[in-house]
Automatic annotation (TrEMBL):
PANTHER family: D-ALANINE--D-ALANINE LIGASE, D-ALANINE--D-ALANINE LIGASE B. The gene is ddl_1. Keywords: ATP-binding, Ligase, Nucleotide-binding. Belongs to the D-alanine--D-alanine ligase family. This is D-alanine--D-alanine ligase. It comes from Candidatus Atribacter allofermentans. Transmembrane segments: none annotated. It comes from the Bacteria. Residues 117-322 form the ATP-grasp domain. Its EC number is 6.3.2.4. GO terms for molecular function: ATP binding; D-alanine-D-alanine ligase activity; metal ion binding.
């Protein structure tokens, strides 16, 4: 039996930047994520090759097409120097190379915070209220502060912080104009809800995706929200509770909602959802869908949730490959 070839695609520059921040006090973990992915797949008999996809498009296309790979284990949130995570799946589809995760349409949709909210409401999932704004637009006469100002499109370069929360119209307009000037796109003005911030992870396909242990973040409430600074400093390892302390009723409700999102929006292989559990209203408010969860070792949410399920990192990688390959076989039949 011939050994099949697999590409591990990632942005070298972004990986190095993130590892510098994530593992500032753990130099032994630098490079560990990609090396463990390779180890896990090699154990299963695959011929593994790394491919940095953050290169000019004229270089990327032949690099992919000339590899003759049977599968791509995709870790790339950016490719061809300027494109977001939706681009590489589109290119792989054009080259007829199967890959881990959802297609480009789903990625584009999930990166658009406004479309995400509209779709959640459309399938009956509660989400935080929001409006879109650009310079010249009138604000509603009565706004119930606080609000949080976000770019409409999620971008690895644009990070949320406590400074994104505003409590009056003057600070709202100032922050909204700042974000608009950075992006040139309409800005999302979202109601800031105080509550328990959680992440739900799923993997699988079809009618029965598996929900991983629900994780609660920012237990110490060091800041009013889990922001980029906390993510860099603590990751999803410290100041968290997994599984989150929930009543059986709330746990069942959250899992059912997560499965509904995964199935109705046609996500593939794995995903994570962020939500705020508004305790005043006794209601979970979903506000982010991530179709390509980060897999940084000893840092990211998805592998940590797997760990709390008793699945170690290498086994997680192997399981993700198995899930994706089963989906591909089903699609081709």
């Amino acid at each position: 039996m011939s050994i099949k070839k697999i590409l591990i695609t990632f942005s070298k520059k972004i990986f190095e930047e993130r590892e510098k921040n994530f593992y500032s006090n753990r130099l032994d973990l630098h490079g560990k994520t990609v090396s463990m992915v390779i180890e896990a797949l090699t154990q299963k008999g695959w011929d593994c090759h790394q491919l940095n996809v953050d290169v000019p498009l004229a270089e990327l296309v032949p690099s992919l097409s000339n590899q003759n790979a049977n599968f791509v284990f995709n870790l790339a949130v950016c490719s061809a120097e300027i494109y977001d995570q939706a681009f590489l799946p589109s290119l792989l589809d054009a080259l007829n190379i199967p890959y881990l995760g959802s297609n480009s349409t789903i990625h584009s949709f999930c990166l658009d915070r406004s479309l995400t909210k509209l779709s959640l409401r459309g399938i009956g999932i509660p989400t935080t209220s929001s409006i879109q704004w650009s310079p010249g637009d009138l604000l509603p006469d009565s706004l119930a502060y606080p609000y949080i100002i976000k770019s409409r499109f999620r971008n690895y370069c644009l990070k949320l912080s406590s400074d994104s929360i505003v409590n009056d119209q003057e600070s709202l307009l100032k922050k909204a104009e700042e974000v608009f000037n950075q992006t040139g796109e309409k800005v999302l003005i979202e109601k800031f809800v105080e509550g328990r911030e959680m992440v739900i992870g799923l993997w699988g396909n079809g009618n029965n995706p598996e929900v991983l242990p629900i994780m609660e973040l920012n237990l110490s409430r060091e800041k009013p929200l889990y922001d980029a600074e906390i993510e860099s400093k603590k990751g999803y390892v410290d100041d968290i509770s997994c599984p989150a302390k929930l009543s059986d009723e709330h746990k069942t409700m959250l899992e059912s909602m997560a499965i509904k999102i995964f199935r109705e929006l046609n996500l593939k292989d794995f995903s994570t959802f962020h939500l705020i559990f508004d305790q005043k209203e006794n209601l979970p408010l979903f506000f982010e869908i991530n179709a390509l969860p980060l897999l940084h070792y000893k840092h990211s949410a998805f592998p940590e949730m797997c760990s709390h399920r008793g699945v170690d990192y290498r086994s997680m990688v192997q399981k993700l490959l198995q899930i994706a390959m089963e989906r591909i076989r089903h699609e081709r039949n």
